[in-house]
Amino acid sequence: MKLAWILWLASVLPPQTADSLCLTTTVYLEARDQSVRGQKAVAEVALRRRDSGLWGNTVCDVVTARKQFAPTLVSPSTRLSNTEAWAEAVTIALEAERNWALPPGQRKEIVPGASHFAAHAIASPTWRSAYQVATIGDHTFYKVQSLKPRRS
Known about the structure:
Elements: H1 3-12, H2 15-31, H3 36-52, H4 59-63, H5 70-73, H6 83-100, E1 116-119, E2 131-136, E3 139-143
Antiparallel strand pairs: 1-3, 2-3
Helix pairs in contact: 1-2, 2-3, 2-6, 3-6
């Protein structure tokens, strides 16, 4: 399936289902070749950003914000063809959403406070000198800014 089709599908699905699809797609595109821990960390950054409201109010808004995550950085014609990696990304995304639905003190955080990440083999962001939370596989996770959940 092509990325453009997945993003279109997310635009017509109910919000919670769309968010699960967008998170799955992001985990797949950003970290399918990483460990389960690394994939969970990518999902955690996206969920933390959603909670902050700075990049949007939904996971889909966050991961499609301009130049933030793979869904806007790769070609819309990119095929997501590794079915095993897709199935793993679905499991990880759903597990991450369940974990993130817990009260903050009960969540299992892998990269506490991380607001950004980068794969330095392919990116050299301007904020790469920020506080490094962890390096997992090919990704380094950073606390570039303090993200606080928006007020309800």
